[in-house]
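Lesson 9: reading folded outputs for more than one chain in a single document. The general rule is that every protein is listed as its sequence immediately followed by its C-alpha cells, and records are never interleaved. Here is the first one.
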Amino acid sequence: MDTKEKERTRRTQSTKSGTSATRSGTKTKAAAGNRSASAGKTASRVKKTGTQPKKAAPKKKTPEQSAPATQRRSAAAASRSVAKERTRTSTQTRRRSSARTKEKRSIAQDVVYLPPKPFSRNRLLLRLATVVAVVLALVLGISVFFKVETVMVSGNQKYSADAILAASGIQKGDNLLTFSRAKAGGKIMGTLPFVENVRFGIKLPGTVNIEITEVEVGYAAADASGTWWLISAAGKVLEQLSSGANTGYTNVLGIQLDAPAVGSQAIALEQEQPQTDEAGNTIPVTVTAQKRLHTALNILQYLEQNGIIGEAASVDVTELGSISMQYGRRYQIELGDDTQLGYKISILKAAVDKVAKEYPYSVGTLDISNPEEIRFNQDKS
C-alpha cells in the first residue's frame, strides 16, 4: 500500500509540473505575438508616412558643466565660502537672540511685584497735617523774622525823606515781604505831585529802599479865570502859581485848563462850540482843545529830549496849522503844522546857532516849517 501511494503522489506532481510548463509557454508565445504585432504596426506607419520615429534628444549641459574644471572648482569654493558665511551669521544671530532672551528672563526674575498698599485714612491725615504745619511755620517765620526796620530814600530833592516816608504809609514793624508796593507808590505820587516815578527795593533782613524820580522842569498854563498852574511835560498838574510867577517858566499858549487840581491830569477847556449850517446840520469841531494840549505837551517833551530846557519862553498852539514858539528874547520860531515836530525840534538848536553866528545881535523870525529850506527873516525895526 505504501508503494502505491508513493507512485500516485509522484504522478500527481508530474502532472502539475506539465500543466505549469504549458501555461508558461502559452504566455511567452502571447507576449512574443504582441511584440511582433507592435513591430508590424510601426513598420506599417513608416511605410505610410515615410518618417522614422523620434529619438529622445540628448540632455544639454549646464554652463557650470561645460566650463573648465578650474572655473568649476573656483565656483564650488566660492559657494562653500558663502555657505560658511551664512552659517556663521546665522549662528551669531541665534547667539545674540539667546543672550537677549536670557537678559529679559534675568530682568523679569529681578522684578518683584508688590501689591498696592491698602488706603489708609490715618496716613493721609498725617500727611495733610505735615503740610499744614510747614505752611504755618513759614508764615510765622516771615511774620516774625522779616519786618521793616529801616527805610532808605534816594533821588529826592524837593521833598524830604520824612515827607516821602509819611506819604508811602510804610511803618516800622510792617511785614517786609507782604506790603503792597503799588499801593505805597500810588500814595507817594498822589500826595507829592512833583514825584514822577517811584521804585522799591528790599534788602533782607529788614530794609526798604525807596528811589524817587522828581519832575525837573515845569511849564505854565492858565485856566479860564487867568490863574496860572505849573504842569509837567506829561500833563500832570504840579501846583498853582502865584500872580506873575509864570514869567519864570515856558508858557503854553492857545489852551485853557479845565478845573485843574494838584496831582491830577491836565484837561483842556473846550472853547469852540459846534456850528450849524444853513440846513440846520451840526458841524463838529475839527480841532479840539484837548488835541491842541496834546500837541503842546509833545513839543515840551521834544524840547527836553533835545536839551532845550528853559530856552523856549512860550509855545503857541492856537492854530495847529501855524504853530509858533518864542526862543529866548531874539527869535520867533515858526514850526508850521503839527507834522514832523520831533525832527523840527531836533534841528532847532543847530539852526539858531547858525543864525546867531551869521547875524549877531539880530532879532527876527526863524522859519523851520520846511526842514529842507530853513529861512531867517531879520526884523529891521
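And here is the second record, again sequence then C-alpha cells.
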Amino acid sequence: MVAGHADRSYQIMQGDEDPGPNIDARSFHFPRLRASEEGTLPLRRGWIANRIALAVAIGVVLFSGTLGFAYLEDMSFFEAFYLLVISVTTVGYGDVHPVTEGGRVLALAIVPVGLLLVFGLGVSYVTDRLDDLVLRGGVGRLERKIGQLKNHFIVCGCGRLGREIATNLEKMGCPVVIIDRDRERLVEAGADLYLVGDALREEVLERAGIHRARAILTTFSQDTLNVYLVLEAREVAPEIEVISTASDREATRRLYLAGASRVVSPQLLGADILAKSAHSPSVYQLMTDIVSGTTPEDNIGQILINPGSPLEGRRLRDFAKMDVDVRVMLIRSDDSTQLSPDGGAELKAGSVLVVLGKREDLEKLDQLSLPSK
C-alpha cells in the first residue's frame, strides 16, 4: 500500500486527527492536471501571450496586405501574396511591383511593419536560445550536469515558496534541481540547475534524476496538484522521500493517504508559531535562532545511524573520544523518542539523532554514521 509508506508523524496536526483508513491512493482516478497559477508550475502566460500576439499581428499583416494589393493592383490572390512576401522580406526580384499610387502607399506602410514583426519574432527566438547557450551553457550541458547529480533535492515550482526552499537548501550545501514551466521565472530566481517542464509528467521527473534524488518537494498552492504529484512520484520512484505543502488539515490527511512522507502546511504552521511567539516569546526566539542557525552552535542537523556504522552500539558519551563536539537534542527510533538523552544512551542502527553543533562536527558525525568499509 502506498499509504503504508508514509510517515504518520503529523508535524502540524499534533495528533488531533486520525489520517484515515489505510487506503491505496493509486486506486483513485485523478484527471490529468496542469499547474497554472502562482507557485504551482505556472503556465508561461507572459511568454505565450507575447508570442501569440506577435503571430496574430503577422497574420493580420499578411492577410490585410494580400487583400490590399489584390484590390489596388488588380492582381490574383497568389500574385498579391507573392508581392507582399518579396516586399516584406526585401527580396524585390523586380518581376512584380506596385504600379498604382495606392499600391505604393500600401507598400510604404506595410513593409516597415512587416519587417518589425518578422524580425522581432526572429530576435526573440534567438535571444531565448542565447540565454541558454551563453548564460546557462546550453540546455544539453545543463541536463548533463543534472544527470551527474546524486542524493540531490528536486523542488517542484519556482514560486515564492519554492524559491525560498531552494535557497535554504543551497545554503546548507545541498544540490537542488528546480522544475517549473516558466523559464523566465527560473532565470529570474537565479537557479543554477533547473528544468523547464511540467513536473506532473513522468519524463520530466526522470530528467530531473528522481531515481538518484534524496527527496522531492512539491510547493503547489493547489492541494489537488500536490496530491497528483505525490502519486506520480510514488509511481516513478516508490522509495523516494516526498515532502509536500498543504493548505489545511484535510489536505494534509489526503496527502498522507496519497503517500507523502511528510506534509507541512505553511498557513497552519505560521499560525502555530505566531500563537507561541505571543504566549512564550523567549521560547519562540530560541527555537527561531536554532532553526535559522543564529545560535553559537550555528547548525542543527539530523543524523541517521546506518547498520554497520562505527557508531552502532556506542553511547553518546563516546562522542568526546571521537573528537565530536555536538549536543544531542533527541534520539528517535521506531518504538520510542528520547528527549535530551544522557551520555549513557545507546545508539542503535536505524535511530535518528537531532543534534546541534558546528558544521565541521556535524559533517564528521555524518561520516561516522555511514557503514564501515
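What the second record shows: The chain has twelve helices and ten strands.
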